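Slack export, channel: ligand-projects

TW: morning all. Re-posting the request from yesterday since it got buried. We need the structure predicted with the small molecule present, not the apo form. The ligand is zinc ion; the SMILES is in the block with the sequence. No rush, but it would help planning for next week.
GE: picking it up
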Amino acid sequence: MNDERPVHAPGGEHPSVAERAIADLVQAARGIRARAYAPYSHFPVGAALLCADGTVITGVNVENASSPLACCAERAAVYAAVAAGQQVFRAIAVVGGERPLTPCGGCRQVLAEFGDLTVVAATPDPAVPVRSFRLSALLPESFGKEDVGV
Ligand SMILES: [Zn+2]
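GE: finished. pasting the full C-alpha cell output, ligand included:
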C-alpha cells in the first residue's frame, strides 16, 4: 500500500487509489472466487472491498435453490464489511467470467449507499486488462440518502 501512483485505467479512473492497492484487491477477488457457492449458474464470482483503513474484505456469490434468494459477491462483501465495523470504502474489485464484470444494478445501488468508490472489473486471467470505473459513472443520477431526507 506504499505505492501511491494514481490509476489511469481505461474506462475511468480514481486517482486516490494506488495502482498497487488495486492490484492487491484484484488478486484478493481472484483468490476468494473459488469459495463461491454457485451450483446452479456455475458462475462463481469473487469480490474484494478496500476499506478506508486499508482493510480488504471479500465476498462471493451465494446461490440458493430458491433462486431469488441468491446474493451477489459484491453485496456479500459489503454486508461482511459492515458487520466487521467498516462503513467507508475506497474501491471494490469484482472477478467473474471471461470478460471483466461490472456489478449488477442491485449491487450498484448497495455500493452507492457508501459513496462514489472505484469499481474494478477483472477476470480470473491476469492477461486480460482490468477495467476501472467510478461508481457514479455506472449508476448516474442514483437514488440515495438525500432522496429520503437523510
Ligand atoms: Zn449484484
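GE: first-pass observations. Confidence is low (pLDDT under 50) at residues 1-14. The helical segments are 19-32, 73-83, 105-112, 135-138.
TW: perfect, thank you
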